[in-house]
Design goal:
10 helices; 7-stranded mixed beta sheet; Rossmann fold
Length: 370
């Protein structure tokens, strides 16, 4: 069915179709519209789910953990400081191997208070064991949410998945949405280590030095196994519904001399910049990174690379740029842009390419190169 929807409404529509048994959530701008819409679906009977209006984001993730460990399909959504408040519990969700699906609407962190887009909130969770995907359109927000349930619940993964979309730039933007008849695309959840209240069992919560590292390795093993599951899921989605996705979305990269790498809406904006640069005779391409965890193998050999980060790790640099340098061992031009919702147009992106200085870092709007 074709309609017009915001990114938030598209996520809620996908959640309704995925049919979680339990939804636990606490409102926070700019994600509130998601859980409000899901609550309306539950109230109207369109979604047969137990909706728990908890007192905090920490409690929301704790409730999802409690439900998931019994084998229930679970969903929550948050943003910014709400995600940070969950941080203790996000570690528990991954460590307990629970396939919770969460939407995070990317928003800057205070102080000062800022409700606009930035990726630092989700990137502070990148080492917890959650899979992370970043989307750039309303349609992709819907599609990625559907795929997230199938990926998280696969027995070769059983790790939580975070679907990230830029605050306001995507969460509140109206775009076309084509919903699907889901069928059996998301199989029933069968959690192999589910707790059964009808069969009480004692569990020890403490792991000693001779065992704990094995649990850590098990998360990493599953993260590596998730690469194939993600690939298979995206191919099956394309086969059934006609929309293709990869670990990256590459645009005119094959013959490019310089490639722009970014995430979220900036990655989509870069495509317009590439067309502009091509008209000027600059052989440029763009690579929008969709999956941050697991981090994909990027094909960038022999190309100059311009990385745009809507985030920063103080004392080290742009987080995406750092990840890419660690993998490729090549110098690149790192641009810090879009922090706190700072406006970045395709003309600005084109300027980043025109004025690139390899091996340096530049803060858009500050005019500093280091």
């Amino acid at each position: 069915m074709k309609k017009i929807a915001t990114g938030n409404k598209a996520v809620a529509e996908a959640v309704k179709q995925a049919g979680p048994d339990v939804v636990a959530a606490y409102p926070i701008t700019p994600q509130t519209e998601i859980v409000e819409q899901v609550a309306e679906f539950v109230s109207s009977g369109e979604l047969k789910s137990r909706y728990i209006p908890v007192e905090s984001e920490h409690s929301a993730m704790a409730a999802c953990i409690g439900a998931s460990i019994t084998g229930a399909r679970t969903f929550t959504a948050t943003s910014s400081h709400g995600l940070l408040y969950m941080h203790e519990m996000t570690n528990w969700a991954a460590g307990a191997r629970l396939p919770v699906v969460m939407t995070n609407v990317n928003r800057s962190l205070g102080p000062g208070w800022n409700i606009w887009a930035e990726h630092t909130d989700a990137l502070q969770e990148r080492d917890t064991g959650w899979l992370q995907v970043y989307v750039s359109t309303v349609q992709e927000a819907y599609d990625a949410t559907l795929m997230a349930f199938r990926i998280a619940e696969h027995n070769d993964v059983l790790l939580p998945v975070m679907v990230n979309l830029d605050g306001f730039l995507l969460s509140h933007i109206m775009q076309p949405l084509d919903t699907v008849e889901l069928g059996d695309f998301i199989p029933p959840l069968t959690l192999p280590h589910a707790i059964d209240p009808k069969s009480p069992t004692g569990y020890g919560g403490l792991t000693g030095p001779d065992q704990h590292f094995k649990f850590r390795w098990d998360i990493e093993r599953s993260m590596r196994d998730s690469v194939k599951v993600i690939d298979d899921t995206q191919k099956e989605f394309a086969k059934r519904f006609g929309r293709q996705y990869g670990f990256t979305e590459d645009y005119r990269c094959d013959d490019a001399d310089v490639v722009v790498v970014a995430m979220g809406t900036l990655g989509k904006e870069a495509e317009v910049a590439i067309d502009l640069l091509r008209k000027e005779g600059i052989k440029a391409g763009s690579m929008r990174l969709r999956w941050l965890r697991p981090f994909p193998k990027l094909v960038l050999i022999g190309k100059e690379v311009v990385v745009i980060d809507r985030d920063y790790s103080f004392g080290r640099g742009g987080i995406l740029a750092t990840e890419i340098m660690a993998q490729t061992k090549e110098e690149l031009f790192s641009v810090i842009a879009g922090i706190g919702g700072q406006e970045v147009t395709y003309e600005d992106v084109a300027d980043f390419v025109r004025n690139r200085r390899m091996g340096t870092e530049s803060w858009f709007g500050v005019n500093s190169n280091v």
